[in-house]
Design brief:
With about 80 residues, the protein is mainly alpha-helical. Helix content is about 45%, strand content about 5%. The protein is elongated, with a radius of gyration of 13 Å.
């Protein structure tokens, strides 16, 4: 049953946002990053905070792993 229902992330303005929307936001942020200087999970938290999405770094890491996205150190391109 849990599969059919999304959890929600609280926002400061009292409008909740679906966790799937947060995952897509993380995916979008990472897809637009510089491959030579990938964004850390903490930096992603700060970017999401600008959109009034308050989320922990550990949650960003969990969602990133669920999306199959490597950590910033493993995403870095050296060439």
């Amino acid at each position: 049953m849990k599969y059919f229902f999304n959890s929600a992330i609280k926002r400061d303005n009292h409008n909740d946002i679906a966790s799937e929307s947060v995952k897509q936001a993380i995916k979008s942020i990472i897809s637009g990053e510089d491959p030579k200087a990938p964004l850390s999970d903490q930096r992603i938290v700060e970017i999401l905070g600008q959109d009034d999405i308050k989320i922990a770094r550990r949650t960003v890491a969990k969602y990133r792993e669920m999306l199959g996205i490597l950590s910033s150190s493993k995403r870095k391109k050296y060439f």
